[in-house]
Amino acid sequence: MTTPTRFDEVVAALRASGQLAADAVLPVQEDSMPWPVLVLQAVAAWVAAALLTIAVVVAAGISGSNVLYIACGVVLLLGAGGLLRTSKVYFLTQIAIPTVIAGAALVIAGVDPGSSTTIWMFGFAALLFAVFPNVLLRFIAAVTLLAVLWYWLTPGPFFAPYSTDVPAPTSGMAWRFAAGAARDTVYGLALWWLWVRPVGADSPWLPVRHALLVVALLAIGGWADLFIGRPGGADPYWGMGWQQPVVIWALRLLGLLPLLVAVVHDVRRNPGLHRWLTPLAILLPFCALAPGVALAGLLVWLGLGEGRKVLLWLGVAAGVFGFADFYGRFPVPLPDKGLLLLAIGLLLVGNWAWLRRRPA
């Protein structure tokens, strides 16, 4: 008699002998390992890939040949790329992801493009996103694509239009501020569109919307200041205080467009929602104070409307950070800042009390 070895053979033998009911619900087999094991394997794989990359870079650097950089990069790209597309082993897949990225970086370094570096970065990121279906690699490629697009849509040298050393407004500065506000609005609208659409686990839009969230928080939300020390925030007119030109205050309203589009979309889906939104309209001027605060309002609304706690808490954190950044940079006397903060607090408390007394 042959002893059953496979799980389905064991189940069939038990049913045939009557020891297992025919309608018994079998436990679902899980092929994945526990998440701590996955994390340890991922860390080990990335460390191994980093050591391999360092060895290749040192060898190519000693030779001083750009051709060797390109050759090593192509070898890493082809080898790791083939491994990524064919291997089903988690550890090997995790080794292949950073190795592919390192290969692309070596090719770019070997080409020595100078001012065209961003074009090569964009091209390789688009290629990696299109060729490899791995979610993590697509996320990294999407972050690169969106960051490069942000760079291209920033007028003038990178971050130069956002310096606080602005003696007086000029038409050129106003144009750059308008271009920056339009760019923030486009990214905000894309963020709203991607997060209100249902996305499957295998959809290429899934890593894109997470990448867009990361880029928006770092760029629009101002969190990149913590890493790169940008001196002037996202506003070339901070130094003018309340005396900013009317056109600049009007352009701030452009940053509210994604939030307004999200609100209108939800009101059209739920017609009875508008009666609860009227008291909250008082909060809109606060969202116009700074781009980071407008982004925070959008994330909070998406978190509440779509039932996503991650977006909600990220929006709260972005709101606190954005308002603190605005409060710290705004060049008005400290007593005026205190009065502004007191007025905002009284307004919010009064609005909260009115909502509590309002009949359901």
N-to-C span: 73 Å
Describe the largest sheet.
none
In which range does the helix fraction lie? 55-70%
One letter per element, helices H and strands E, the order comes to HHHHHHHHHHHHHHHH
The gist of it:
With 360 residues, the protein is mainly α.
Can you give a write-up of this model?
The protein is mainly α and 360 residues long. The protein has three domains: 1-30, no CATH class; 35-152, no CATH class; 178-349. Helices cover 69% and strands 0% of the residues. The protein contains 16 helices and no strands. Mean pLDDT is 77; it is low at 157-171 and 226-235.
Helix-strand layout with pairing:
Blueprint: H1 7-16, H2 35-63, H3 66-86, H4 90-111, H5 117-131, H6 135-152, H7 171-196, H8 205-219, H9 225-228, H10 246-252, H11 257-269, H12 274-277, H13 284-287, H14 291-306, H15 309-329, H16 334-357
Which terms summarize this structure?
3 domains; flat; 360 residues; mainly alpha
